[in-house]
Design a protein that fits this description.
globular, two-stranded antiparallel ribbon, GTP Cyclohydrolase I, domain 2, four-stranded antiparallel β-sheet, alpha+beta
């Protein structure tokens, strides 16, 4: 049976010559409130433009699972996940949006971005 893991596995980008966006939705993120110990639930939305590496999905699932019993503030855990993904992948661009469920009558959304210096996205295309 799989267990939580702090490591992220990668595989070679199959098309490193072009920019393309990988989007993933992880609707089952959980951690604990560091003040009360109550569970916090969030949906994570990951978007990245890979350079040489892509993240392997099972390792990402086990990595996300590793936060389940940890007390951590929303801002801290969102930045930690983005930093760990950035370190593992060295992407051209990465955005993590963490949409936490209501706690104390407040919904929290944390958006973390990192961009390789000098990298610019292609202009947006609008079709009729």
């Amino acid at each position: 049976m799989p267990t939580p893991a702090k490591s992220l596995e990668t595989f070679p980008n199959p098309a490193p010559e072009r920019d393309y966006t990988v989007r993933m939705t992880l609707p089952e993120f959980t951690c604990l409130c560091p003040k009360t110990g109550q569970p916090d639930f969030a949906t994570l939305e990951l978007e990245y433009v890979p350079d040489r590496l892509c993240v392997e999905l099972k390792s990402l699932k086990l990595y996300i699972w590793s936060f389940r019993d940890r007390g951590v503030f929303h801002e801290a855990v969102s930045n930690e996940i983005a930093s760990d993904l950035g370190a593992a992948l060295a992407p051209r661009f990465l955005r993590l949006t963490a949409r936490f469920n209501v706690r104390g009558g407040i919904w929290t959304t944390v958006v973390v971005e990192r961009r390789r210096p000098g990298w610019e996205p292609a202009p947006a295309v609008s079709l009729p």
